[in-house]
Amino acid sequence: MGAPGATAAAGHDLPEQPDVLVVGGGTAALCAAIAARRGGAGVLLLEQAPRWLRGGNTRHSRNLRIRHEVPTPLSPGCYDRDEFCADLQRATGGSADAALARLLVEHSARSTDWLAAAGVQFQPVASGVLPRSRKTAFLLGGGTAMLNRLYAAAEALGVDIRYSCGVTDLKLERGRLAWVDCASASASTSTSTSTRASERTRLRPRAVVVCCGGAQANRAWLRSRWGDAADGFINRGTPHATGEVLHCLLRDGVRAAGDPDGAYLVAVDARSPADDGGIVTRVRCMPAGIVVDGTGRRIHDEGGDTASTRYALWGRRLADCPGQIAHVILDGQGLRGAPPSLYPPLLADDVDALAAALSIPRAALEKTLAEYNAAVRPPAAGDEDVAGWHTEGLTPPKSRHALPLTEPPFGAYPMRPGITFTYHGVAVDADTRVRLEDGGVVENLFAAGMIMAPNLMPRGYLSGLAMSIGVVFGRLAGEEAARHVVG
Amino acid sequence: MSSDECLHDTRAEARRVLGICNACGYCNGFCDLFEASKRRPAATAVDLEHLAHLCHGCRNCLYACQYAPPHAFGVNVPKTLARMRQRSYVERLWPGTWSGWLAAAFRHGVLTASLVSVGAIGLLLWLVWMSVPSEVLFSAHSGVQSGTGAFYRILPWWGMVLIGFLPLGWAMLSIGLSLRRYWRAIAPPGSVSWRALGSALHDVVVMRNLRGGGPGCNDLDDRASHLRRRLHQTLLVGLLLSFAATLAATFQHHVLGWQAPYPLLSAPVLLGTCGGLAMTCAVVGLARLKRREDRSPTDAEARSLDLAFLGLLFLVAVTGLVLLALRATPAMGVLLAVHLGTVLAFFLLLPYSKFVHAGYRLLSLLAEALERAGRQQV
Ligand SMILES: Cc1cc2nc3c(=O)[nH]c(=O)nc-3n(C[C@H](O)[C@H](O)[C@H](O)COP(=O)(O)OP(=O)(O)OC[C@H]3O[C@@H](n4cnc5c(N)ncnc54)[C@H](O)[C@@H]3O)c2cc1C
Ligand code: SF4
Ligand code: SF4
User: Ligand 1: which of A14, A53, A57, A473 to mutate, judged by most atoms within 8 Å of the beta carbon?
Assistant: First the structure.
């Protein structure tokens, strides 16, 4: 897609001393670049991905969490400061940095207007086709559409954008970021980051905003935390979230935030590509069936979780399964009600054939199903709700939606843990300046987006929070960086 | 590859792509297609056809798609559905007798339109040349005032009828029967209500599905604009005005007994001039967009069909305007023949041109409007 201003050959003629260097190309990076440019600074933006894959995990996002004191065309009802703060503290077990949380909640109310002024389109509730969501606003066309608008706005403002050009190393000296090394890959369509050409350039920017996301695409890094289990993970988002910058910063004495072992995992179809399968790979129909691991045994109460956190709970459980794989098994009735899926379910006329298709010991699967079907009980008399079906005397129990699984054909979705982001980042102060391990800050280094989100979200998650963090702190970081250089 | 296999592949690809969209749904604010597709999880051949005609090809959902090529999922909805529409035009063609041949007309739109136009213009020139003495053909018509039947000295009235109404009648019959078959396949149960019809016509007039959910379409690339929608509306208005001009002329001829050419300030000339100008401007604008647009969201055959239709419209409109301007000069005779030639080509190709999209789209919008009304009642 040849588009205006697509600057391909990245490594060449890079300005050696840009006012502000923005590292990354997602929400946080674009907001930072636009804000810094409007603040009067010259801006160079380096995006490690090629143009078609620009924008990191933002490409896959849909909505952002916003405070609004009155109903708006984008979100019904109201969502005030107290409720937002309370949600955040509850989801993170009270571990969110209070000052940053206040900033987020405060500024989130202005983020949709700010984005709209940059040309971003939202989808009004009146479109009638959105899930009801009081706490978030939906992007028309999703994150990729938003990125198109933000890149266009940045280009129009004169931001120098280079694709296929990533930061590979950097140096912190005496509380300053001294230099940054970057390397460009030939503008290929390859998603592999290892094919990077060795053309390196050393830049000495006056200020830097790092917005390059987490390290969830870095297999070696995941293996160092999760051992062999990491091989069974599927990375839902960009293959470019490789964490070099995070690694270099922590190496040079930056204070870490969040949990080095944490990862936000959800259940995804095991047949998904290793990277970038995005939202459509999710598997959601656990309550309609039973979930068995590779040995044919059930692993958890499938009807128990109802909150929106249920996806993440299953992600963790899958990570603990042998081979990090399990299967949700449905019968004919469950299959009819299953939500649309990326891949069709594996189908079989009877349990034997299904066991063979899934490489599960036949006897074990038959036993599990027989025990389950023998334990299901209808809801109490007078209760018509199918959710009231439950098991009795079964471990683990299925507390709700426990309909008998007897109607052929039988179907299965194989599942693996899908990593969305990691909970390990850099600590920042209220100006988004990166903090040092031994106190103090790096005077010319700012961070925004997922690389600093663990300050606010060391664990847990709220839908739309990551994007809100990207917009709010991207803007702040861009403004601060411009102020630092322009004065 | 045989056309059956080809159709099979096109369907399989549409099914695959829309299956991914059903699981994603991010684009459901752009147009009606995405929710309509979700309501048709079985994605039968007829479902896919209906969905393809529902898509207005605004292209927004390609630029917004995180799975657009070269992503491994390779989701390109506009292109996939443009292919489906092409196949549907051929498959629904009535009569199906020469559909193998006529499929080629759909496949090679520009080539077909060029050949037929040249042939038709040649035929008319030849007819006029053979039948009209050259003193008459090239005489200065400056003395000839309106209302004297000067045109009929070049070509008799019945000749014009033969050239105009016979092919047009055939085209309408063919398109009508094709559309009837289509409607029978897609019509939701129950009868058509005026309300639903009104709603579908409203969708056509404002081209609601070309609004991209508000900001407009990705006419050229990933920037949004309303230019294509406006141009398309102008073209529609131009066509309707030209049609009205023809009706007015027929009325004056038959009912009032007035002879063409009509004076400049008469209804047929005024309507025709406005219609011709609107059509010319719209066609030029649309063709310029087509020339500059990113081609990844389109299908090469569909693009050729679009260009062919624009070309035909341009020829008809421009030769008509030139004829009007120079009707009092010695060039009138030749110009009349050329203009009628373009009209003949236009009518002959109507059932095998992009023109047919209007009918299919209206019917698909109507089916959606009926379903919408049905859902609201429940
Ligand atoms: C499938 C999916 C759906 C999601 N949906 C939502 C949602 O609906 N709402 C929500 O709030 N969040 C959602 N998220 C979370 C998402 O991570 C955030 O919304 C958002 O992308 C974070 O923005 P960011 O700018 O910090 O990081 P990203 O958007 O990931 O951007 C990081 C950028 O840095 C670049 N980069 C990385 N390393 C380097 C380097 N060394 N040099 C140069 N550039 C580099 C990358 O190429 C990328 O462009 C979703 C995530 C996934 C995977
Ligand atoms: S076109 Fe792409 S982004 Fe849009 S609904 Fe389909 S899969 Fe989702
Ligand atoms: S009308 Fe536009 S948004 Fe809708 S399917 Fe067609 S190209 Fe996509």
Answer: A57
